[in-house]
Every structure is written in structure tokens, then in C-alpha cells.
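pinging the channel bc i need a second pair of eyes. not urgent but kinda urgent?? the chain im working w is below, pasted from the shared doc
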Amino acid sequence: MAESIPKKENTTPLESLIQKNIAGITNKVKTEVGGLEREYVKFRRYHRVSILLIAFAFLLPNLVVFLMSIYFNNLPMVWRYIVGVVVSVVSLSFCGYYAWRLFLAGRNVIDRFHKGVDEIVYDKVFSLFGLKGKLVAHSVLVDRRPVDDTGSKWRQLYRIVRGHVSSLRESPETDKVLGDLATSELITEPFNKTRIDSVFEIDVVGSPMRVAELEVEQIDGVGRKSVKKRLFKGYFVTYKLAKPCKGKTFVSTEGDLYGFAHRTYWKGLTGGEVKEVVFKWTDFENLLHVASTDEREARRIITAPFMHDLYEWWNAESANIRISFMGDYLYLLFPDEQIRFEETIEEINEKELSAYLFTIARPLLSVLHLIEHVRG
């Protein structure tokens, strides 16, 4: 691991490292992206107004009906209904039109601003850790809910348009991330919607590592009856091992009993090729779990320092991590609620930039310390 990576006793060294460099980073952002800031702030305000307009469009008809029930209670119900419908049509048409115009206004400026900030910030994070890397993709929504023939024609049309727009934003980077996620077998529950934001690649001790900001959801039903279940939000890491694995090895933390290919094991069922691997590490055995198709290989790959780092991280965060080793790669689902999908900072200043940079550097540092003790 690069010598410049700070020791992970606590976050203070990392925060100090960021503060030491934040003035230069801020100047860099101002130089390269500052020209967009005024327009960016203006168009963000337009977006907020568009949301308020949509809310007002739905609120106004209800308010009119409510006032009529108070001040015109002698008016026949049918007339109240007609007035409510007319107000709804007018408010939705008027507010919807202007809200759409405000929302689309400056979309290109906002996207350019966020992308410009990310290109600089990620490059600086890599430099702080003494690593070489690059940002390869930015902000993609993959919506693969099936298009069926239920519901109204308008709803069917919406589903078709939704799927088409989503497909236009997909890319080879998107396919690569989703393909690796399927190969990793880290999520075996069904899902039909993913958000993939910043995807970056770095070189770690001569081995390539790809990281994608990822959110995975399963959405069942449509409209008000839809049920949304978020399966994961965080970083999906793919790291090339020095020596390929012959079998499959999985590592999970306490509380995360389902979702792996070996979930039948964690349910207490028998059968299958994946078996528990028991390590004689008393501190870890109640919190961390290992299962593998090749016990001997699992013991070679998973070192005591690796388990110690994983235990320390889990003890501090109490979140559930998922790891698999198969073929040439280590796959890792690293949870993080601080990811800002399609967002960076609201304005260019040291406070905002240091906070944003920390949300990227902190989880990356944890991942780096984990994989440096993997014996590939």
C-alpha cells in the first residue's frame, strides 16, 4: 500500500490531511469550474421552484374544495365536483408546464458543474493516497422494471418511455458494473432498479480496482400501490487478485444473513457445496462469518489482519458488509449512506469541498485498508 495513506486509527489524520490540502483543491475547482457557479446556483433555485409548483398544483384543487365546503356549503355537490375538476385541470396544466420548463432549464449546466467538480475531487483524493486513478463514468440510472400491458394506455406509454430513456443512459461502464455484480453473487434477491453514479478505477499495488457508487432497489407494483425495497446503497468494489481462486468464498457480518449465494446455509439448511469455515479467532467468530466451497483456499485468502480490519470496521459502523472471492477477483459491497447521487456541492468554498471530499476519502480509505491484507 502506498506510504502516503494515513493509518486508520481514527478519522483525525484523514481530516488533517484534507485540511492541509483543501486550499489548493478549492483554488483548482474555482479555476476550472468557477465560471459555471453563478448559473449553477440560479438553475438549482429554478429546480426548487419547479418542485414547489408541482406541489402547489396538487394542493390548490383540494384547498378550493375545502373552502367551498365552508363558504358555499349550500352549493350542490355536483357543482363542487365540477369546480374541483376544472381547477385541477387548469392548475396541473399551468403549473406543470412552467415546472417542466424550470426543471429542464440549465440541466446541462448543472450536469457539467457536478461532473467538473467530481473530476477534480476524485483526482485529488487519489493523489492524497498516493494512487493513480481516473473517473470513468458519472450518474447513470438503470431502470429495468418490466413493461407489461396492465393499467391505462397512458401508464403503458409512460413505462415504455421510461425504459427507453433509461436505456439511452446505459453504457459499457454500466454493463460492466451490473455484469460484475451478477458474477459476484453478492445480491441474490431480485432487483429491477439500480442507480450507478461515479465509477472510478485505481491501481493498488499493481492490481486494478474498480469502484462504483451503487444503489439497488426492487420495486413491485405501480403507482400508489407500488412497494419499494432498497437492498443496498454504497460502494461496489472489484479488485483483481494476484492469484485466481479455484473455489468460491464468501464473508458476511453479523445481521446480514441473507442475500448471498450461500443464503441457504445461513438459514440453517443443509446441502450444497458452500460450507462454513470456522477460524479459531474468538473475537471474530460471533460477528464475522465465512463460507466456502474450498476450505483450504479460504484459509489461505483470509488472513488474520484482514479479519481484524473487518472486525474493527464493523465494530465502529455496525453496518453489514458483503465480500466474495471467486475467479480472478475479490468483490465487495461496502455500505455507505453518505453517497450523494448526482450531487456534489452547492457552492464552491473550502467548507463544502472538504465535507464532500471526506465523504469520498473515508470509505475509500477503509476499502484500501481491507484489501491490503488480502492474500491473493
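so The two ends are 14 Å apart (CA to CA). and Confidence is low (pLDDT under 50) at residues 1-10, 164-168. — does that match what u expected or am i reading it wrong
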